[in-house]
């Protein structure tokens, strides 16, 4: 059975001989592991998923980068993320802003890489900053949240334009034999939603339903990433067609209750904490806790074992190897 077939077994909530896994790494950690363990180590990890975003940046001076939407980011010295340095929408209006056209060449290049390197993997095209995050990167989060209340017509227009862009990107990507679309968009805090469930349902849910539906028409699976506590809206996500929920932080959820309540409808992707377990535990504690989580979330399928985020640089190589030892060997 191929890696892709094992993921499909899990998505269909069938108990298989092995749980699929995906150990994502930040670029700093990937480079460190290659230095310490050899050029071929990343390939030897054996991940079951392969997905990529076609996002590209233009390097500017003073550690700044420009994205396709005209947003300038100040990049940190370490890590994969930065902070917005220049916002495009100073006022709640799109009158002086033009959305970019998708780069066909970039999307084709990304998809060709997915096809080539993905081989027998479960393959997804990733759209990061897919809605709320794209909106606040253009407008500034505190302004956007006030717009939710004061400028509803602007928010609806902004989200509609973002979805139009994403669907144009998806149409190009879906020329390839993908298995799914991975949407990245953070809505949760350590407790509850940033914007609250009512405003999420007013603005974000209909936009998501449109994107999900577009992919579902092509028979693709939907994977949604959001950090934090989104328990209030899990039924809504199931209603509009979500298949795979990432990232499932164990600090936030009672995993047994989560599996019991939603395990028949969702495949969980994540669960191994990058907030508390991987940075601070011993290798033996990592192994023990990973086995426990795999037993809980992997019962009757519906689980892709993974860290809750791409592993950051505060996680030791020993703990990464401990995690890999368990996920590579574990049978359900």
Give your account of this protein's structure.
- This protein has one domain (3-55, 98-329): TIM Barrel (Alpha-Beta Barrel), CATH 3.20.20.
- The protein is globular.
- The protein is α/β, with parallel strands linked by helices.
- The protein contains 13 helices and 11 strands.
- 38% of the residues are buried.
Keywords:
332 residues; 7-stranded parallel sheet; 13 helices
List the helices and strands and how they pair.
Blueprint: H1 3-11, H2 27-37, H3 41-44, E1 49-53, E2 58-59, E3 64-66, E4 72-75, E5 82-86, H4 104-118, E6 122-127, H5 132-139, H6 141-150, H7 152-173, E7 180-184, H8 196-216, E8 221-225, H9 234-239, E9 244-246, H10 255-262, E10 267-272, H11 277-280, H12 283-297, E11 303-307, H13 317-329
Parallel strand pairs: 1-6, 6-7, 7-8, 8-9, 9-10, 10-11
Antiparallel strand pairs: 2-3, 3-4, 4-5
Helix pairs in contact: 5-6, 7-8, 12-13
